[in-house]
Design brief:
seven-stranded mixed sheet; globular; mainly beta; single chain
Length: 118
Amino acid sequence: QVQLVESGGGLVQAGGSLRLSCAASGRTFSMFRTGWFRQAPGKEREFVAFIRWNGGRTYYADSAKGRFTISRDNAKNTVYLQMNSLKPEDTAVYYCAADDTTASWNYWGQGTQVTVSS
């Protein structure tokens, strides 16, 4: 099992920045990818970005490209999401997720609220 704990959410004005953190514990050696998803009120959960633990390759949703950066600290088993130029439409609960080779996105954190005011 892998446990994920997010932190770093909050309230920020449009144009501002936030950095989310996702700390992993447990069978972290088995992780293949760690990523971020978000869910706005009344909308379905959507993919934001992920990073592969082996090699560090990154992938972004179109909405995140150029504004968000995902990175990892292997020594701390932590993944970060640096969010710049935030917009009100980025307001959502952001979830950290991870997977191993047995299933896709089989581990989830509890979520952290990000609110961007206009």
